[in-house]
């Protein structure tokens, strides 16, 4: 296996595995927020604000995985 092939495999694994966690996390966050709003509709504003903030943090992890995979590919 050449060095270039190893880089491509490492790139694919870095972004692939790095996107699984945030994807699952965002799904759980959305599910629990919808459940909370369904139980207490008056609290929609604070719940939605916290949900969006949590989704942004989870998405940042996926962006870090993308950056790492690009570094592996091009360096």
From TrEMBL:
* One GO term describing the cellular component: proton-transporting ATP synthase complex
The membrane topology noted for this protein in its Swiss-Prot or TrEMBL record is:
Multi-pass membrane protein
Q: Which residues cross the membrane?
A: 51-72
Q: Which UniProt keywords are listed?
A: ATP synthesis, Cell membrane, CF(0), Hydrogen ion transport, Ion transport, Lipid-binding, Membrane, Transmembrane, Transmembrane helix, Transport
Q: Extract one GO molecular function annotation from the record.
A: proton-transporting ATP synthase activity, rotational mechanism
According to UniProt, where does the site described as Reversibly protonated during proton transport lie?
59
- Supply the Pfam families for this chain: ATP-synt_C
Q: Which SUPFAM superfamilies match?
A: F1F0 ATP synthase subunit C
| Taxonomy, superkingdom | Bacteria
Physiological role? F(1)F(0) ATP synthase produces ATP from ADP in the presence of a proton or sodium gradient. F-type ATPases consist of two structural domains, F(1) containing the extramembraneous catalytic core and F(0) containing the membrane proton channel, linked together by a central stalk and a peripheral stalk. During catalysis, ATP synthesis in the catalytic domain of F(1) is coupled via a rotary mechanism of the central stalk subunits to proton translocation.
Stated family: Belongs to the ATPase C chain family.
Q: What is this protein called?
A: ATP synthase subunit c
Source organism = Candidatus Roizmanbacteria bacterium CG_4_10_14_0_8_um_filter_35_28
Gene name of the record:
atpE
């Amino acid at each position: 296996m050449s060095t270039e092939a190893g880089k491509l495999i490492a790139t694919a694994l870095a972004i692939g595995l790095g996107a699984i966690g945030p994807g699952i996390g965002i799904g759980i966050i959305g599910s629990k927020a919808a459940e909370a709003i369904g139980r207490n509709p008056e609290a929609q504003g604070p719940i939605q604000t916290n949900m969006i903030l949590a989704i942004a943090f989870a998405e940042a992890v996926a962006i870090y995985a993308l950056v790492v995979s690009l570094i592996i590919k091009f360096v």
